[in-house]
Predict the 3D structure of the following.
Amino acid sequence: MPAIDLRLGIDVGGTNTDAVVMDRHDQLLAKAKVPGTPDVTGGIDAAIAAVLQAPGVEAQRITHVMLGTTHATNAILERRQLGRVAVVRIGSPATHAVRPLFGWPEDLRQVVSVGETIVGGGIEFDGRDIAPFDAPALARFLGEVGSKADAVAITSVFSPVSARHELEAEEVVRRELGPIQISLSHLVGSFGLLERENATVLNAALVGVARAVTGAVRTSLRSRGLDPVTFFAQNDGTLMALDYAVQYPVLTIGSGPANSIRGAGFLTGSKDAVVLDVGGTSSDVGVLVGGFPRQSSQGVEVGGVRTNFRMPDLVTLAIGGGTVVNQRGDYVGLGPESVGYRIQQEALAFGGSTATLTDAAVTAGRVHLGTHPIPSSFRPLAGQALALSDQRLGDAIDRVKTSRADCLLIAVGGGSVLLPESLPGVSEIHRPEHFDVANAIGATIAKVSGQVDRIAQIGPGGREEALSKASEEAREQAILAGADPGKVEVVEIEEIPMAYMTNPSLRVRIKAVGDLGTSGT
Amino acid sequence: MKRLLDEATLPPLARGCGVLGTGGGGDPSVGLMMTLQAVGDFGPVPLIGLDELDDEALIMPCGSVGAPTVGIEKIDNGDEGGRLRDRLEAIWQRPVAALMSSEIGGSNGLMPVVWATRLRLPVVDADCIGRAFPELQQSTLELAGISPTPGVMTDERGNLVEFRTQDGFWLERLGRAATVVFGGSSASTEYTLTAGQARSAVVLDSVSLAIRIGTLITQAAEDPVATLIEALPAFKLIVGKVVDVERRTTQGFVRGSALVEGLGPDRQRVIRIEIQNENLVALEGARVLCSVPDLITVLDSETADAVPTERLRYGQRVTVIGFACAPAWRTVRGLDLAGPRPFGYDFDYRPVEELARARD
């Protein structure tokens, strides 16, 4: 790991791509916000180019790159760019009482799945077979649907206890379909068959999207002769290696909001506040508690699909700077469509023909921008649209608050210029400098993590000793990844008893996180 | 009024069963998925009162037995209940008129629906515990002197065992052994009874109670936890976060403990919850805050959803509550069957409300 010098943070949003450069004292040296492009590559390259050309930034001194994106989440929410997945569950005759993808929104299932099957096999809690793995049945299924699939998602009952049927199935897929993307559930999630299966299927569907983003970043850096250590921000706001993120993109889908909440805290020095991030397409309201995003205690739903990931606890609204405003009979229509990154062509303030919330904010004098005057006939509709968006945002803030008392609100994101001077239930709206790139700053200051996932024998020291040994290893891993040794803490402990082993054993999964050490190594 | 268990009533029923499940009885969210698929495929299930059945009508109490850690992974096939019904009718030489939940807590409050819809049978608005307990003989039907046998158990493969045992304790021991061999879970029926026998032996209206609890927390405008505590009524044992979970799947049970460390006003406090499938005892140091047969439920502090033992995880923000059990369990015989001592604890039961008063 090279000594840390300059860090480049990149946030690929639905509307804009932002980039920042920070030095080892967390001083912001440069920032850029550029409109996205349909293929993401152009936007990423333009944002990187803009900050690297800024005065005071020597590109060769960039040692670390941190990437965060809502791209994967948006792909699921908008059902686009998703890979087509053959969904394989190994567990028959068990598990038929809940079919694969049961409970998914029908439109998402149609887009993602080329077919689902439950084949014989699966593991018992004590490591035995439920039934022998039925390889011929899997081969027949792949023969029927394989040609339509971009990826295969494989989930066996109790694969966290033994992955052998998933690994056998992987071989069958290789034999039948050749070099196709395969996601195995034991590498994606933990106990809870349905949630782990959902996450594995989403993961398989997202691999292409993740490749596009990481490929664009790599290409852009290489074309400038740079080869920094590159990280991807994940759901809990910590960083993981880019290579890992490409294989497990579902672990990154919460990274956007986690980054913006942490970035808002950093920019204001606040430890406790409500954070409102208004983008071009949507707004997220989250809570900063003790300097960290408040996490959901149970698994969250992603695009209507239940998973067992813990992520920042958020309320998301389809309100952003590009949200389309129109008259619908007697009332005002507010989104959910957004002109997104085309705002500078399509919005009224830029000479386009689509009325957006940004145009409403300009009309009301909340912000001054644009190149063209807005017709005065838009004025009444603008007032109604802002009143409605203020009310919806106010309701969302009220939902995440922990007490009835008025709260401090930190407003970030490019679209936060839409906000009024005050909101009900809010004591003060804090609009920090650089609010527009809070996401990218949040990625840059994210913590690094170390993870241990292995079978531990329980010796004479018992379970406590096994756990504390593994915790120490996770801590060392985090330090190896660049964490400041004085600031590493264990944030997740999970143990899976291996009842079938002759010697008492545990599978332990432990995660430790810490700030990047800035003293250099 | 005709009442139906359908896509509208099942989600609140599942949430209510979670609260009454005291951590066990199986994850109600898995039970909910099973019922929603079954009801979608086969149609809604009538929920009937005992008074709608003739005295001689045969009722099949039923549910899943085993370790809840298995239930969230090895989900049922779906046809288990049909095999139980067929065997029972062969034994009794009469039709089964209705299914009834063996225990309302957890997914077991929902399992009869999964099977009843396939069999076109109604479900009775009652159960045999009023919560969830780990062992088969811990049933109000045992207290009422109903015979537990013959009992029938089956697995997802179609293995089926009929038990003719001395009593409920033998059924528990032999049934548990079969369950372990099946792979940690089985579908089970025992304590077969007539509607006439049931009238004074079961916990009445427990399905509708669970639906009411679920509706209440779903619709709570402000603070679902506070709303629930007021309505039950329950006692708040601690507000905090889970800092340690120890859990082993052995002998067909999940055993272990969880530590909850206080937050906010409860900072500096730590309570320990001891688990055998269900939450048995809540201790603060050596002091008992609540114990079986009263109910101890771990709630998500935000949503008031019950957190089943198999889903407890480090870092979860939770509120632990205790509340009173059905009156049958507070009798001498009830405590002999399901009080602290039969679970191996060396202290006498004191009602949760009395323990709470003593703390104030």
The radius of gyration of chain B is 19 Å.
